[in-house]
């Protein structure tokens, strides 16, 4: 199945990166503090293990491999979270209605707002003739005002992809 192929491929990628890290004397079986100590011995002084922390050292093969390792681990965790949150074939995330200072809604368990590209076929297997549409909430106020003022030119711009954000279509 597509599901087992996707996750199997990710685990294989993770193992390959781990092998390369072992060659570089980085043991990913240690906890993060142990990995940080190994990095400090090699001149990579960071306070926490993250892509952002490793970015200044991206010319180092160790940092480059660790960034890849963190990325793959995150993709696997998100995939497992997706599987755990399925109910009758549907992904049912949880939402924080006031999850940020701007008042935006935030999804979690799993976060459905930022799926890795590698899972799009698994998450959204489309049949012929089906499409995916994305609503750009950032421009909701503009769209609402355009609708109320009957400014059809704005809708034409957005649906032709000439406006900001994703293409939008309205009923």
Sum up the overall morphology in one term: elongated
Mean pLDDT: 77
The count of DSSP E runs of length 2 or more, i.e. the number of strands, is 4
* N-end to C-end Cα span: 35 Å
Overall radius of gyration:
21 Å
Strand order of the largest sheet: 1-2
Query: How many strands, what sense, and barrel or not for the largest sheet?
Result: 2 strands, antiparallel
SSE topology:
Blueprint: H1 2-23, H2 32-41, H3 51-54, H4 61-84, E1 86-87, E2 90-91, E3 94-96, E4 106-108, H5 120-123, H6 140-148, H7 152-159
Antiparallel strand pairs: 1-2, 3-4
What's this, in brief?
The protein is mostly helical and about 170 residues long.
Question: How does this structure look, described?
Answer:
The longest helix is centred in the middle third of the chain and has 24 residues, at 61-84. The protein is mainly α. Strands 1-2 form a two-stranded antiparallel ribbon. The chain has helices at residues 2-23, 32-41, 51-54, 61-84, 120-123, 140-148, 152-159, and strands at residues 86-87, 90-91, 94-96, 106-108. The chain contains seven helices and four strands. The protein is elongated, with a radius of gyration of 21 Å. The two termini are 35 Å apart. α1 runs antiparallel to α4. Mean pLDDT is 77; it is low at 163-171.
